[in-house]
Amino acid sequence: MSHWEKQSPCTVEEFTTYLLEADSYITREQVLLKTIDSFGYDTYFFGGLPDEDVGSEIKATIVKSNCDKEFEAEYKKRNSHRYDSVAAHCLRSKEPLLWSAIPELEIGKPKFQALTELVQSYGYYVGVCIPLWTPQRLYTFGVSFAKRHNEEFIQHDEFFERHQETLKAISYLYFSQIDM
After folding, report:
1. CA–CA distance from 68 to each of 119, 143, 148, 171 (Å)?
2. Exposed/middle/buried for 57, CB within 10 Å: 0-12, 13-18, 19+?
3. Backbone φ and ψ of 139, nearest 5°
4. CA distances in angstroms from 124 to 43, 52, 68, 154, 173, listed in the order given
5. Alpha-carbon gap, residue 53 to 22, rounded angstroms
6. Residues in a beta bridge with 139
7. pLDDT tens across 43-97, in order?
8. Cα-flanking dihedrals φ and ψ of residue 64, to 5°?
9. Confidence (pTM)
10. How remote is the C-alpha of 103 from its chain's centroid?
């Protein structure tokens, strides 16, 4: 029985096998989408920032994603990356950030509130960002996985805590292959 017929999260070994069998960008992305679906996620956002900009203002936007294209266009139009604390964390930290753990200080800021409303208006409620630090790269990368349905943060966060090492490994394996 293939993994996709099972109801459990994909293992790193299964993911690696499927990824190595994929013969094109499209089939590799299908492997990623099926894998994150096995963890309950349906969307990924991948972005990068030149290393010399890591300590300064974030200039990066979404580089690759399967998110709603209207959402992505609106995110870019509003220059949301300038006040997106999830993106800032993902590009400046080494530890994952659960969306439920966004600092309280951000919540009251009008621009962040507008971003939260935009994100939720497209159905993105819960998720996690995973920094993708790699040595000797010109860019610092990060990926967010999101669910397009409203789930309790506690349920999501407990599930992520149990599977974070697998999700981090899968993220590194997949996104280290991306060419900018």
Report:
1. 10, 16, 10, 21
2. exposed
3. -125, 150
4. 9, 31, 10, 16, 25
5. 34
6. 50
7. 999 887 665 555 555 555 567 899 999 999 999 898 887 778 787 777 677 889 9
8. -140, 140
9. 0.85
10. 18
